[in-house]
Amino acid sequence: MTEDLEWRVLSESEKERERKGRRKSLLLCVSTFIHCHCFLPTLSTQQHTIKPLSPSHAIPTPHSKFPSDSDTQSLFFSGRAERQKLLNQKGCVVWITGLSGSGKSTLACSLSRELYSRGKLSYVLDGDNLRHGLNKDLGFKAEERTENIRRTGEVAKLFADAGLICVASLISPYRRDRDTCRSMLPDANFIEARHHEAILIVFMNMPLELCELRDPKGLYKLARAGKIKGFTGIDDPYEPPLNCEVHVPEASKAIEIKQDGDVCPTPTVMAGQVVTYLEKEGFLEH
Amino acid sequence: MTEDLEWRVLSESEKERERKGRRKSLLLCVSTFIHCHCFLPTLSTQQHTIKPLSPSHAIPTPHSKFPSDSDTQSLFFSGRAERQKLLNQKGCVVWITGLSGSGKSTLACSLSRELYSRGKLSYVLDGDNLRHGLNKDLGFKAEERTENIRRTGEVAKLFADAGLICVASLISPYRRDRDTCRSMLPDANFIEARHHEAILIVFMNMPLELCELRDPKGLYKLARAGKIKGFTGIDDPYEPPLNCEVHVPEASKAIEIKQDGDVCPTPTVMAGQVVTYLEKEGFLEH
């Protein structure tokens, strides 16, 4: 049996525990305690102080049959707050959305580099690349595309919880899918700053003509030739983020990157816009 | 269209490109260059020197229709080597396997805390917890359980690539599934130290009787009562890692944690064993 079955049965077991009136031993309590603090750190409002360990904490318990430490303090683990302190930043997701050829990957690269130059840890999740690993079992049906976005969102959430600035770069043309990802993040809010949302949508608002002219992968040509059906911007819609359209930046974290006249910003300028935003919102300190 | 279709069509597009004799513009070359360095860092043997950026690098290109920087050096992004340098550690996966109740979660907690006390960044992936997010679409059929392990392995690989010490805690009873995860890691090997494997298997070799006595989730009771079928250790096998059995630690990274006489090691002692191993193998420095 794998841990799957454990999880399924746990709720039944817990119900039984309820019926029995919580007559469980101290051992079970301690075990549950460990589990909660270990794997559900974001659900806890308690902040733990991690004490530097010394060998004196490792007192063997020769009469115990079970792994345990005499000092319960040592059962605390390093949680999100500690990881953020270590990195001196707040974990979050920068979700870059836009047409094919709008410069998402370029921005992701530049942003990653710019953050590194400031000593900040980021990681880029790219939809295409995940296709070779985590999402390699997914095909190209509508529901599989949605699943691709969902899994990417779930992984991005884990990275944010780990304290990293996770840069997800996906066309993600539908509001529904982006909203699903956004809705994953609330319970990953920062314990110490609950007003923060942990996701920042970056909308690469570049004209279709420009993206098509750029066409780095030759996909627009194929789409125009009818060799690709359902291509975003050609015969399938791109739904721009609403919060950018209505210009209410304080309602939700979203920024728009667009041309200044007919001049596109350089990668460094684009990255600078995002970094400035992250800095202003306090993401670049713990 | 999502990025899925892009990926699928890319190979067709690339074939066409081959046929056309690589008559693509400089723009396309630069774009491909960015893409390769951005998302396939582990496939490149080249190590990049990241130069601290100054505003002078952000020179706009007013005559260009496309996002670009005049300084191609700035197209380099922060790769695995840079992230490891930032963290002063090597990204890897510590995969904890063992029976239910053998102390996997306890070790994961303790290890995470111990690493934090040394200023090292780790993240715990727990099979049960992933059930609530990434793997919530999976049921309990054999192939879905295997898929659960596979996805966890893929995510662990991403975390290792991000430079973290990823602690995956799953019963993972079958060698086949563990081998699948192990096989994912070779191309995540360290650029600067190719002799390193990026996965360390930790086998919690605790007697079934002890695990059943401990039974923190009450699952063994349910299994003995016939309420759970296919429970590892009761009516489904646990296949211990072979490399532990034959005691060839140098053949593959695997360590065994077991009782000393009838005394179990404390969490701190267990974590210490793993940390000592990681330190000895050079994972705790970049």
TrEMBL record, chains A, B:
* Record EC number: 2.7.1.25
Q: Which GO terms describe its biological process?
A: sulfate assimilation
SUPFAM superfamilies to which the protein is assigned, alphabetical: P-loop containing nucleoside triphosphate hydrolases
Keyword Translocase belongs to the record:
no
Q: Which UniProt keywords apply?
A: ATP-binding, Kinase, Nucleotide-binding, Transferase
Q: In which pathway does it act?
A: Sulfur metabolism; hydrogen sulfide biosynthesis; sulfite from sulfate: step 2/3
InterPro entries reported for this sequence: APS, APS_kinase_dom, P-loop_NTPase
Domain APS kinase positions: 90-248
What sections of the protein cross the membrane?
A: none
Q: Which domain of life is it from?
A: Eukaryota
Where in this protein does the record put region Disordered?
Answer: 51-72
Q: Per its UniProt entry, what is the enzyme's top EC class, as one word?
A: transferase
Q: Which reaction does it catalyse?
A: adenosine 5'-phosphosulfate + ATP = 3'-phosphoadenylyl sulfate + ADP + H(+)
Q: What does this protein do?
A: Catalyzes the synthesis of activated sulfate.
UniProt family annotation: Belongs to the APS kinase family.
Give the matching HAMAP family.
Adenylyl_sulf_kinase
Question: Do you know which NCBIfam families this protein is assigned to?
Answer: apsK, PRK03846.1
Query: What's the protein called, per UniProt?
Result: Adenylyl-sulfate kinase
In which organism is this protein found?
Vigna mungo (Black gram)
Starting at the broadest rank, the lineage of the source organism is:
Eukaryota, Viridiplantae, Streptophyta, Embryophyta, Tracheophyta
